[in-house]
Write a structure and sequence with these properties.
The structure holds two protein chains of two kinds.
Chain A: E1 3-7, H1 15-23, E2 27-31, H2 34-39, E3 42-45, H3 51-60, H4 64-72, E4 76-80, H5 82-85, E5 88-91, E6 97-98, E7 103-109, E8 120-126, E9 146-152, E10 154-158, E11 164-170, E12 173-181, E13 184-187, H6 195-212
Parallel strand pairs in A: 1-2, 1-3, 3-4, 4-13, 5-7
Antiparallel strand pairs in A: 5-6, 7-10, 8-9, 11-12, 12-13
Chain B: E1 5-13, E2 16-21, E3 24-30, H1 32-41, E4 46-51, H2 54-57, H3 63-72, E5 77-80, H4 86-95, E6 99-102, H5 104-108, H6 111-120, E7 125-134, E8 137-142, E9 147-152, H7 153-163, E10 167-172, H8 184-193, E11 198-201, H9 207-216, E12 221-224, H10 226-229, H11 235-244
Parallel strand pairs in B: 1-4, 1-12, 4-5, 5-6, 6-7, 7-10, 10-11, 11-12
Antiparallel strand pairs in B: 1-2, 2-3, 7-8, 8-9
Classes of the chains: A alpha/beta, B alpha/beta.
């Protein structure tokens, strides 16, 4: 059984992630203990809510060095929603806040677009930036245009196009709906709330983690 | 672009799913967990559980139902009815709900909305409006459509947005359970008044009712009950019909 540590930093509804990992055959542990996190085969950084509060809580529970240590050991880590945004350098949500800086780029409010509402609460489509980008990724058998569930007002803008794993249309623009740099992954949507398609993404993550260990 | 959402609304009384007409004359329609699981398998986009009696008796018995549902339903789950305290919201989220919807308590103490949305994020806090026609306008009701509040429903929607709700769900008491179509002027007035996503509830009986609503308003989602509980149309049929008419939904 593949153990996935879900980092518990007092933010968001973790139960759905626990349930979905069980549904795809993994063993989730909800923890903020460094030994638990570093001994798990994969890590999920969950989170909903405000960026500043998310970073403050990671600091409060002294989780930042543990996340860096896990990344240094090339453990697969998946940030979900706010968890993805925290991977970036900085955010403009309620002032200016520094993030983990694992991926270059910043987090900004979605631009106001005709026919779209803020917050963006909806199922919306994912497209690969290039036709080969999804091979061997968490989207390996997903069809371009697949729908996932989003609930957010801010989005990440990576500096390097190569870090973008998928893009999602919003009015006349696209935003980055998932990132990958090596073993560091993030998705703005909620795979644990995106029906069978979302579970497939989590199953692929668990499979990638299993194959790496 | 953002897809229009179909939400299954399951009203719960004790351990039963129930359905009324104009929020009254409740009839049992099944086991809430059987229904939620079936709707999930058939492609529903979200589930909304409403405790039909919680705001009367000051308690909520839905947490156990939510706990079971969250193990097998992997789309967003919202809980409404009987939420009064920060602790209630925490218990709802801990059970596996993603969002809560507030009506009666929001009317009694509007500051509770801003407090809750600061703590849990506005994506998690929905404002529920139960509206009844009064001449040319609509009045907001509380306690599951039983008590008048004196509040104009449209003004109340704007106030709820200002207090920090992430979405607004508007139920037409006049249309609820009638299967005669939505109160489109009401939904349109709310959509025009606020910029947060709006969910319309009350009156869906045919696919054409839902189409009419999506064509005439900018509403983001519909909550449906009778159509599903009484097997009038399948979720697949509803979605195929909407897609044929160029309304974008998740398949």
């Amino acid at each position: 059984m593949t153990t996935i540590a879900i980092i518990d930093y007092g933010i968001g509804n973790i139960q759905s992630i626990v349930n979905s990992l069980i549904a795809v055959g993994a063993t989730p542990i909800v923890t903020r203990d460094s030994a638990d996190i570093l001994s798990a085969q994969g890590i999920i950084l969950p989170g909903v809510g405000a960026f500043g509060e998310g970073m403050a809580n990671l600091r409060k529970y002294q989780l930042i060095p543990i996340i860096f240590e896990a990344v240094r050991k090339e453990k697969s880590i998946l940030g979900i929603c706010l968890g993805m945004q925290l991977l970036f350098q900085e955010s403009e949500e309620f002032g200016h806040h520094l993030g983990l800086g694992l991926i270059e780029g910043c987090v900004k409010k979605l631009p106001s677009q005709p026919g779209e509402k803020l917050p963006h609460v909806s199922w919306n489509q994912l497209y690969p930036p290039t036709s080969e980008r999804w091979a061997h990724s968490i989207f390996q058998e997903s069809v371009p245009g697949i729908d996932m569930y989003f609930v957010h007002s801010f989005a990440a803008y990576p500096h390097h196009k190569a870090d973008i794993l998928s893009e999602t249309p919003y009015g006349d623009t696209f935003f980055c709906s998932s990132v990958q740099r090596g073993t560091i992954l993030g998705c703005q949507f909620h795979p644990e709330k995106s029906g069978p398609a979302g579970l497939t993404v989590l199953r692929n993550f668990v499979q990638i983690v299993t194959l790496r260990n | 672009m953002a897809k229009k959402r179909l939400i299954a609304r399951i009203d719960v009384k004790n351990e039963y799913a129930i359905k009324g007409i104009q929020l009254e004359g409740l009839r049992k329609v099944g086991n809430p967990n059987d229904l939620s699981q079936r709707y999930y398998r058939n492609g529903i986009d979200e589930i909304l559980f409403m405790d039909a009696v919680a705001s009367l008796y000051g308690r909520s018995n839905l947490f156990e139902i939510i706990r079971l549902a969250a193990r097998e339903v992997f789309v967003p789950i919202t809980l409404g009815g009987g939420i009064r305290l920060v602790d209630d919201i925490e218990a709802a989220l801990h059970s596996g709900a993603d969002k809560v919807t507030l009506n009666t308590q929001a009317i009694r103490t509007p500051d509770f909305i801003s407090e809750a949305s600061k703590i849990f994020g506005s994506q998690c806090i929905l404002g529920s409006i139960e509206a009844k026609r009064k001449g040319g306008s609509w009045e907001a009701y509380c306690d599951t459509g039983r008590n008048e509040t004196g509040l104009d429903a449209i003004e109340w929607a704007k106030r709820l947005e200002g207090l920090g709700v992430g979405e607004i769900i508007v139920t037409s008491i006049d249309q609820e359970g009638t299967k005669k179509g939505f109160d489109i002027p009401l939904v349109k007035a709310i959509c025009d008044a606020v910029s947060v996503p709006v969910i319309a509830c009350g009156g869906a009986g045919t696919p054409a009712h839902i189409l009419d609503l999506f064509q005439k308003t900018t509403v983001d989602a519909v909550a449906i009950a009778s159509i599903l509980h009484y097997n009038l149309f399948s979720i697949e049929a509803l979605k195929s019909f909407l897609l044929l008419q160029n309304i974008q939904v998740r398949v």
